[in-house]
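Hi again,

Forgot to attach this to my earlier email, sorry! This is the prediction with copper (II) ion bound. I've pasted everything inline since the attachment limit keeps bouncing my files.
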Amino acid sequence: MKYVQPGFYEPTDEDMLAMVIKDLNNNILGAQSGNPLGISDNFLTAYAIVNGQPGYTPSTRSTHLFNSSPITPVVMSPITDRRLAVQLLDRSVLQDGFTDIRRWYDPDVAYTFLVCGDGFSEMADGTELYCFGFDNQTATANNPGNDPNLGPDKVFANALAHADLPAPTMVVKQDQEFHLDLANVGFAYRPDLFDPHTIHFHGFPNAAPIFDGMPLASVAVLEGATIPYFYKLQIEGTYFYHCHVEATEHMQQGMIGNLWVESRQNNIPVGTPLAHLPPGKGTTHQAGYRYAYNDGDGSTEFDVEKPIQITGLDHYFHDQEIAIQPPAFATLFDTYPLFNGRGYPDTINTNSLLNSLGKYSQEVDTLITAKKGQRILLRLSNVSETDFYTLTVLGIPMTVVAKDARLLRGPDGKNLYYRTTSVTTGGGETMDMILDTTNTKPGTYFLYSTRFTQLSNDQEDYGGLMTHIVITP
Ligand SMILES: [Cu+2]
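Structure tokens for the complex follow:
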């Protein structure tokens, strides 16, 4: 069964501005017939000419936000009634002024602009499922050169119906300051819903709950709005993130993504003694050595890394979402078990997947490649709401070094890493495993679920939770 999308209407920037800007009287500014929105000569502001009832004045909030000083329209038809010129979308409405400026000159500030919305994801058997999700619009939003074609006010049009599964991967550095703008473009295919969204760094210690994303204790972003999140990345490790609003529904719908914090041990001085570097790596830190955690001894050193995010989609649930029916939570069962939003063999396709809207919907592959002798760090996260998953790797020794973003060490520092051929995780857990290929013959190996029901793409066999590990000479 494959959805046939209704004809997709690609809005212009101006349409999007009209969609997202309402005043307190619930008038959509500039959306009245015969009154196109325009862009001012310097491109910094858009304006709307709104047919007003005689005596209409802008609401207090509109006046405050949009600065009601009239600007001269470029070309207008004769004015037959009272018209209200409204300058709207001053850039600071969508963007917090000081983050705007600081991230452009401070290299220590990492910045990401994510937009929440909806879209469609391709399953490996050709089925397309309706999803919610995030889209990375950092390149559009970040506009130090004041390019009129870029800027925060352009992200809404670009992000409409463009949700990614999984959400864009976020890789940040320990001790770094991280500014994250989260916008909400709304659901193009569920205009009856007005869901807010948040970002929740699962397992990450936040100093204040306001940026934690739990909707009862923090801020959420409404449709048409953008809010800035601030993080100081204190503890390294493998996390994941998701929207925490109506979490079961929004996560099942796809609002989940890979996230990890690189360890500060990567930046110690060359020559620092490390007692347990892997064989052949010497006894001291060298330029380019990377460590999963601040282990103090080099034992989590790795050469290549790969995020492995376990999700599953229950296609009945997604069918009900697009059909505007109440989804059945109690019977959730993932008919499409997925690594990074894809079932086998899509897992080993290194290209982004295109959906029927012509948009890239799945951009993270799970093909793992390394040269013989290299150490592979698997950053495993399980964001399933429905089940436990057991994964196995045969033929390559695997060591679990961390669980839930904490190095496996006892209270007295005793090393609790363990060698295994399989790991079992439930929803919400993360693990870091290192594969040592020192004694592995070049060839193709498999990382897969041990349960047959998880090795299918719905009714299609030989799919689901499987990927290749390719070891080259
Ligand atoms: Cu959400």
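Residues 163 and 205 are 27 Å apart (CA to CA). The two ends are 43 Å apart (CA to CA).

That should be everything now.

G.
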